[in-house]
Amino acid sequence: MDGIWDQYEEITRLKCQNEVCLVLGREDKKVYVRKCLKIYNPKVYESLKIIRNIHIPRVYDLKEQDDRLYVIEEYVGGETLQEKMERGEVFTEKEVFEIILQLCEAITCLHGQIPAIIHRDIKLSNVMITEEGIVKLIDYNAARYFMEGMAQDTMLIGTAEYAAPEQFGFAQTDVRTDIYSLGVMMNYMLTGQSYKSCPYDGKAGNVIRKCTYMDPEKRYQKIQEVEAEVRKLLYPGESKKKWIKKKLLPLPGFRSRKLWRMVAGAFVYLFLIYSVFIVVLSQKKVETLKEMIDALAFYVVALFAFVWIDNRNEIKSHIPFAGSKSKIARGMGAFVFFVLCLMLIAVVDMFLELFFGISIF
Fold first, then answer.
1. Among the ranges 32-41, 104-113, 327-336, which has the highest mean pLDDT value?
2. Homologous superfamily, domain 3-74
3. How many angstroms separate the CA atoms of 76 and 97, rounded?
4. Among 5, 10, 76, 158, whose CB has the most other CB atoms within 10 angstroms?
């Protein structure tokens, strides 16, 4: 292979039968995984290349050649759930719930694509836990798009123990297929056995049962419903306000839990708060709508900056160039975001001037 593939140097092969190997980027000196796939959906991998989600390994480069797809993707260090269980690790209910909640975030991202991406092979060996405790859903060889109106899948694929009935040709797979596999996997984590041979009867029993109904209509209809039920089990009696607090708590600077980063992050946030107070206090007394808008302008600018730095709601995956490996391209992405923000502010300014006779600028 040539072109972009000359940018990577092979280090070692991981799975000879699947032609999976580690490669080193010649320019950035980073380690990546290169896969040679014989069964794949090229459009799904094109979508994965755009997706930015901490629980989904990032795809960097693709190349089709000789009826195979060569993929360069993020190297994920750690162990699969299968490997952990094979060496005797036993999961508590709390640990299982925490893992499932992270998986739900990955699946929500996949199912939220247009059209929805169905993984079709959620199982212990396709869930990786990194050294930092981050859950990654891997291996998208079996993934496909959901196609409205299809009677069944064109290719029957998946792992029999985890596969929903529709994966055997009874109907088209959809988001409920992944929910079925998730329930089966949850049962394996809690009992070490399949749901059919040893259904779990603990707190998660009802969730697993509803995930694994033979009839898709009786299962949870979307992954968010599973997430909500598991969250109730993990945080019993927790109010919505506390849940929001937990969701917003991991701010940039505090995620790694390293002391120096947390201290630096605290200083940055204190500086922003101080700056906001300076701007507000400088207004002394807000007597007009114009003065109030001027006082809030700093909040808007800070909000845009925070959204970009924190990549809230995967904003960078929707901005051209923002997800590139190239620093120049990422800079162009930041510039595009800045221009879009200015355009939004300009529209608001036109509205205010038209209806209230005032201007931000």
1. 104-113
2. Phosphorylase Kinase; domain 1 (3.30.200.20)
3. 22
4. 158
State the CB neighbour count (10 A cutoff) for residue 305: 13
For residue 299, give every residue at least 6 positions away whose Cβ sits within 8 Å of its Cβ, in sequence order, or none.
Answer: 276
Structural element, H or E, at residue 355: helix 327-356
Pairing of strands 127-129, 135-137: antiparallel
Place of tokens 């009786």: 218
Peptide bond into 252 cis (omega under 30): no
- The H or E element spanning position 24 is strand 20-25
User: Both tokens of residue 274?
Assistant: 């101080």
Structure tokens, 293? 């808008």
Query: How many Cα atoms within 13 Å fall on the side-chain side of residue 115?
Result: 14
Helix, strand or coil, per DSSP, at residue 349: helix
What does pTM read for this prediction? 0.66
Q: How far apart are CA 51 and CA 107, in angstroms?
A: 12
Specify whether the backbone of 311 is left (phi greater than 0), alpha (psi in -120 to 50) or beta. left
pLDDT in tens, 249-283: 556 656 555 666 667 767 767 776 766 666 555 55
Tokens coding 359: 């201007």
Query: H or E element: which one contains 14?
Result: strand 8-15
The CATH H-level superfamily of 79-247 is Transferase(Phosphotransferase) domain 1 (1.10.510.10)
